Amino acid sequence: MWMRSVTINLSIMSNEKEPIPHSIMVDRFIALANEFGKTETKERVSSALLYAASRYSAFEASSKSSHLAKDKMDALNWYSAEYRRMLDANLDEMIAMHS
Predict the structure, then answer these.
(1) What is the pLDDT of residues 29-85, one digit of tens each?
(2) Which H or E run contains 82?
(3) 65 and 71 in contact (C-beta within 8 Å)?
(4) Element containing residue 58 per DSSP (H, E)
(5) Residue 15 falls within a domain, yes or no?
């Protein structure tokens, strides 16, 4: 697996007053992906992560818009740009690691 291995404190609960740090949430998703990667191909795991992210993003967009059909293109553009920015940064990190 090319994703970094992390130890995660699973005692952090979502009902605590302090928000869970972004890096901890990311690490939990990566840890789950790595678990799936023990029995599934990277392509299947990546596809499932992308689909889950798109489903949750659609849920988020629908909760923020009272006219989602009208706002759909704005949402698509925003989420696409965010994904591209994050993927670009992570690809640069992979390139640097393997250079």
Answers:
(1) 999 999 999 999 999 999 999 999 999 999 999 999 999 999 999 999 999 999 999
(2) helix 68-97
(3) yes
(4) helix 42-64
(5) no
- d(C-alpha 30, C-alpha 6), whole Å: 8
* Domain carrying residue 30: 25-97
Q: What is the pTM of this model?
A: 0.77
Angle at 32 between CA 17 and CA 82, to 5 degrees: 70
Question: How many domains, the chain?
Answer: 1
Q: What is the CATH number of the domain that holds 92?
A: 1.10.287.3020
| Spatial separation of the C-alpha atoms in residues 38 and 21, rounded to whole Å | 26
Residue labelled with tokens 């293109």: 73
Q: What is the DSSP letter of 5?
A: P
- What is the three-class DSSP state of 76? helix
In a domain, 14, yes or no: no
